[in-house]
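B., you asked whether I could sanity-check this one before it goes into the benchmark set. Here's the sequence:
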Amino acid sequence: MARLKVIAMAEQAPDFSETPSPNKARRKRLFILFGIVLVAIAALVLAWQLLFAWRSVSTDNAYVGADVAQITPLVAGPVAEVLVEDTQQVKKGDILVRLDDADARLALASAEAELAQAQRRFRQTSATGESLAARSQAREADIQAAQAQVRVSEASLEKAQVDYDRRSALSETGAVSGEELTSAAAALRTARANLSLARAQLAQIRATRESAQSEAAANLALTRGTTEATSPDVLAAQAARDRARLDLDRAVIRAPIAGVIAQRDVQVGQQVAAGRQLMSIVPTDRLYVDANFKEGQLTRVRAGLPVELVSDLYGGDVVFHGKVAGLGGGTGAAFALIPAQNATGNWIKVVQRLPVRILLDPQELKAHPLRVGLSMEATVDVSAR
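And here's what the prediction gave me:
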């Protein structure tokens, strides 16, 4: 009896195996919908790649750079005053540092005194040359007078010789006394001595004239073809004066460009040497971006192509525009301190990156300032001509 009741209940139970579960049907529809979405996304990505991706290449390995000005003194000296601080904005020509200029002022005063002495020496040399020329001309007159005296002495000698010869001839006949003959001989000797003396004086005057002429020529060689303004000694003194004045001016260190002060490393009272770096100036209006693209992305990158850049500082709300200035001369690995050695048995190919220099729009930099080292995302439009 019990067995018949169980069989009857089994015949009356519903058959669930033939009716599908609602959860399974819902999951099936979700899987189908998800597959359709994936196919649609893949189709969109493929279409974007075919239609738009070939038009540009981009990288987020890009950073802001600038030609930073290194501020170094050109003369040594103690620091008297520092007028700027880090992060301070300065304009071209602003005073940054003042050095103690006491020694430079003394050097300038000494150089100016040396210049005055050089000018005086030139004027003195010129005056001496004129004096020597006058002395040489005066010696010409003395020579003429000495020559005349020689002629007089020669005439006196001739007369004394004639008188002596006449008296000597008459002395044999007794017409002339011995005393007259002695006087005539003495007069002859005196005439000869006077002639020798006149000739010696003439020779001495001629030698004096030649010496004066030599001195005048030597003095003239110092000033020939020059004036006080073009004299070598005066020019050298002027150069020393200008150098001293330049050193005095260099005691005041000014900003060579406009920008922001960075890396200030100088204090008042510090003794600084010429060439020591005191600080840096970053030119915020002349920034550029070095974007490191993969070598496979550079097939169509050329100088002059437009670039759009987004900074992490401002986000996607601010888009900077620039142009490709050029491609680097080598990869970062090529210019590394220790270049990679690929000639080994364990070599593994690594995709290299080449820096691309991108110039930014100065007007956009004024509206949205950037700083050196900030991260950027650069997109180069390679479809532009």
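One thing to flag: DSSP finds six helices and 14 strands in the chain. Otherwise nothing jumped out at me.
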